[in-house]
Amino acid sequence: MGAQSPRQSLLLAVATGVVSILPIGRAPRGVKAALAAGTGLTAGGAAFVALRRPDLIAAAREPVPARQSAVVSAGLGVLAAGATVAGIATDRAFERALVRRGVAHPRLVLGVAGAVLSYAMDVLDRRSDTDD
What we know:
Layout: H1 6-21, H2 29-52, H3 66-100, H4 106-131
Helix pairs in contact: 1-4, 2-3
């Protein structure tokens, strides 16, 4: 990923925790569908541009033909949208499990867990970068 400082890792962890507090699993179906579609369109669109315009990402290669770029980009968009739907369902399942166990503030627990995991992964990533 790169050389992130401990401060940057901490800021990212806090942002992750704050976003994890949002109860996206309880959002209306239309909001969740829009989020999944937006994620898919963004990922697919970015992939299409990167494949067709390698100069924009400083890649030393020829552009991929439009048809192949469209197929790959559409597949990536569908995967990204599907991952978003799965993530929302997983989030909701974790929240329900915490509620069943009598946790008073399940979203806060998920936010703290998200922040801790984010920070831990950044620390491990930094360590693996220095091992090379």
